[in-house]
Amino acid sequence: MSSDEKKTILVVDDEPDVQVYLQTLLEDNGYNVVVAQDGVEALEKVQESRPDLVTLDITMPEKSGVRFYRDVKENDDLKTIPIVIVTGISKDFEKFISTRKQVPPPEGYVSKPIDREEILDLVKKLA
Amino acid sequence: MHVLVYTSPILDSIGMISRVMEMSTDITPIRNLQSQLESIGLLIGSVSHGIKGLLNGLDGGMYLVNTGMKKGDQGRIQKGWEMVERNVNRIRSQVLNILYYTKEREPGYETISAVELATDVCKHREAKAAELQVKFEWELDENAGNFEIDQAAMRSLLVNLLENALDACRVDKKKTEHLVTFRMKGHADHVLFEISDNGIGMDQETREKAFSLFFSSKGAKGTGLGLFISNNIIKAHGGRIEFESKLDQGTRFEIMVPRTRVESELEETAN
């Protein structure tokens, strides 16, 4: 696969171990990967690199994951980019969903510890 | 005290209420038991979330090591192995925290040298700081003398705060250079420790809840026990723990530990 055929995934997580893990896993499976460590950086990178999909940790400081999600889904230019939520806290995820009625639900959800097959299938399907 | 009151009307011969019988039961022990059960539930929930995050880190490390071996990529193997080590160390400190929380232990006071304890703690985290490429400086007062403390508890408290400081630098990608400073100074009636970092800092919510049980800013990566226990250790020693922190700028903790144990101080005041 030549580099311009590769799809680009934006990985948003504040934990460096998860960034390295997801980046390596996705690159091994033929994707270009861009990494952001918080919602502010993610918003810059999503506009800059126009990824085919975003994986998003919503339990980051300053609720920045949730804010990033809302910003993307309320932006006509960006809202078609699929977002897969990756988190270890299912309770937070439910709360997040219930308070976000005005924006559409995320395209996918993966719980930590990440099942490699599951996330790769989901990325393949949505990206 | 919690009291449960039952009342029952007593009727006379024509069916009118003439008296009321009241039975009061002290249910304080039941309420205490309920709140203990609630804490255990919260602890299990918090620990499970912590384990999920740690498992994810271990999984990631294993993935890098395994694929690194297949590809013969030494750099990848090393990166993966560091992830495994880091997460194993986190499991170790979480387990120690849980044991500390669940076991009501009597502090075992002994008189020890402040500079020896501080040196031991700093040396313990020196390699970790180097691995994370965080500059680690320590300034210890050689003439700080002795103080009477529960050595194991105080050591774990200082290690815990240093770990937090290093962690705050590790996850901060906004600065290129990170510095953690550990200071210890002896005063007439107390020993002062100061641990500062220029890591991610805390937002307002984190600052307000920093010492609360089960609150963690580390998402699924923390149990919310570390600072809660640190605070309890310091209280048991009759000292105080304070901090100031600014988001994106860093955090500074100050820990004051009296030279002599609390009880003896109280006796002196009484005399």
Gist of the model:
The complex is a heterodimer of chains A (127) and B (271). Chain A has 127 residues and is α/β, with parallel strands linked by helices.
Choose one word for the global shape of chain B.
extended
What distance separates the N and C termini of chain A?
A: 16 Å
Taking all Cα atoms into account, the compactness measure Rg of chain B is 25 Å
Uncertain segments of chain B: 264-271
In the sheet with the most strands of chain A, the strands line up as 2-1-3-4-5
- C-alpha-based Rg of chain A, rounded: 13 Å
What is the overall number of helices of chain B? 7
Largest interface: A-B, 25 and 28 residues
Spans of at least 5 consecutive residues with low confidence of chain A:
none
Outline the structure in words.
- The complex is a heterodimer of chains A (about 130) and B (about 270).
- Chain A is α/β, with parallel strands linked by helices and about 130 residues long.
- Chain A contains 5 helices and 5 strands, in the order βαβαβαβαβα.
- Chain A has helices at about 15-30, 40-50, 65-75, 90-100, 115-125; strands at about 10, 30-35, 55, 85, 110.
- In chain A, strands 2-1-3-4-5 form a 5-stranded parallel β-sheet, with helices on both faces.
- In chain A, helix 4 (about 90-100) links the parallel strand 4 (about 85) and strand 5 (about 110).
- In chain A, helix 2 (about 40-50) runs parallel beside helix 3 (about 65-75).
- Chain A is globular and about 35 Å long.
- Chain B is extended.
- The model of chain B is unreliable at about 265-270 (pLDDT under 50).
- Chain B has helices spanning about 30-70, 75-100, 115-130, 150-170, 205-210, 225-235, 260-270, and strands at about 5-10, 15-25, 110-115, 135-140, 145-150, 180-185, 190-195, 240-245, 250-260.
- The two termini of chain B are about 35 Å apart.
- With about 270 residues, chain B is of the alpha+beta class.
- Chain B has a 5-stranded mixed β-sheet with strand order 4-6-7-9-8, covered by helices on one side. Chain B has a two-stranded antiparallel ribbon with strand order 1-2. Chain B has a two-stranded antiparallel sheet with strand order 3-5.
- The chains are: A alpha/beta (about 130), B alpha+beta (about 270).
- The interface of A and B includes residues 87, 111 and 116 of A.
